[in-house]
Amino acid sequence: MNKLVLIGGGHAHLIFLRELLATPIPHEIILISADPYQYYSGMFSGFTEGLYGIDDIRIPIEKLCQENSVEFIVDTIIEVDPINKTAKGISGQIYPFDVVSINIGSSISELLDSTTIKSIKPNYQFPDIIDQFRSGEKPVIIGGGSAGLELALTTTAWRKNNNQEANVTLISASRLLSSYGTKGSTKIRQVAKRKGLEVIENETVEHLQQNVLTTKRNQRIEWSHLLSLTGPIPSPLFKENELLKDEKGFLLVNSTLQHNEYPFVFGAGDCVTVEEYPLLPKNGVYAVRQGHLLVKNLKAYLENQEKLLHFTPQKRFLSILSTGNQEGLLTYGSFYFHGKISWKIKHYIDKQFMHSFHY
Ligand SMILES: Cc1cc2nc3c(=O)[nH]c(=O)nc-3n(C[C@H](O)[C@H](O)[C@H](O)COP(=O)(O)OP(=O)(O)OC[C@H]3O[C@@H](n4cnc5c(N)ncnc54)[C@H](O)[C@@H]3O)c2cc1C
Fold first, then answer.
1. Of the residues 302, 324, 339, which one is the last residue of a structural domain?
2. Considering the domain boundaries, does residue 353 fall inside one?
3. Contact (CB, 8 A) for 86 and 78
4. Measured in angstroms, how far is the CA atom of residue 295 from the centroid of ligand 1?
5. Do both 87 and 114 map to the same domain?
6. C-alpha 265: how far from its chain's center?
7. How many whole angstroms from 305 Cα to the centroid of ligand 1?
8. How far apart are CA 8 and CA 246, in angstroms?
9. What are the φ/ψ torsions at residue 86 (nearest 5 degrees)?
10. For the segment 225-273, what is each residue's pLDDT rounded down to a tens digit?
């Protein structure tokens, strides 16, 4: 019997637990995560707008573990040593393993090394931070990608519904939704304007002072609450880990989701770079897709099977960005649609995802 340690209660490990219920395996399994709950980012926008409560957007990992006879431990892992096959928690506890799988997500880069601005990552910090942010006098979001836009637009909607002045500003270093193509940028710009979100594009923050920031082109913007959503950076776990990380600091795995030199180290989701697809965007869609493969490969590896499956990312996937007031921007390849139906589809997909874990 082997000891499998799962680090992080991210999408892939939740799928592992769910599938374990259907086909249990005769190995000792421990899941260690930073919080007893996994918060589902697909529903963060709905929470921000006030459409979902806290229990709608989180999955109790401990309960899921209990149902599967998996031991659950709350701890933040700060070191993984592939030579001695141990992981170390912030608690000081050492966890030995035969096989380890890591699914801890990513971090968000700190704004100008500011330690005063709190991050929504790890995900369990999200509800408290957004609660303060959305009711602040002048909330400002840095980052014009889908996460920044969703939270800026749904904060705007929440404020209007709660009789507060919109007063939300979004600053983007490039054009809005730059990875979507110009059609997407134009559409979201129109939506933002119509909804009263103030957008500053192609501008970077140069100086940060208490309640005022200055941009490269010398614009002074007052803020009461700041959220930085400038894209994923590696978790501190791999920062000093020369044995496991790639040049950017993500865990390097191959398409079977294993480390080349230490094949008993598996990883999935935002925390990994897949060697064959180094530019793969980090999002929940790929974390879920890798989760299904991870389940099969971990089981095969534990049963000493030689052939493992290979991850191939799908070329296109449906993306729906919530824009507030129960509207959404749906994109699929070059197709775009904005409206209430898009949000309804998103709501349905997200609810189905949560229901698949019985919540
Ligand atoms: C506001 C926002 C909205 C988003 N909306 C979408 C969307 O609609 N669709 C989409 O596809 N993507 C979306 N994303 C991106 C998505 O959140 C991530 O790509 C996705 O969460 C990655 O999943 P994961 O399983 O790798 O990690 P995560 O979901 O981040 O889960 C990591 C887990 O590991 C735990 N953990 C973290 N560090 C440690 C540690 N050191 N030790 C132990 N446990 C640890 C955490 O508590 C957490 O439970 C959004 C992101 C944001 C910020």
1. 302
2. no
3. no
4. 18
5. no
6. 21
7. 30
8. 19
9. -135, 155
10. 999 999 899 999 998 888 899 999 999 999 999 999 999 999 999 999 9
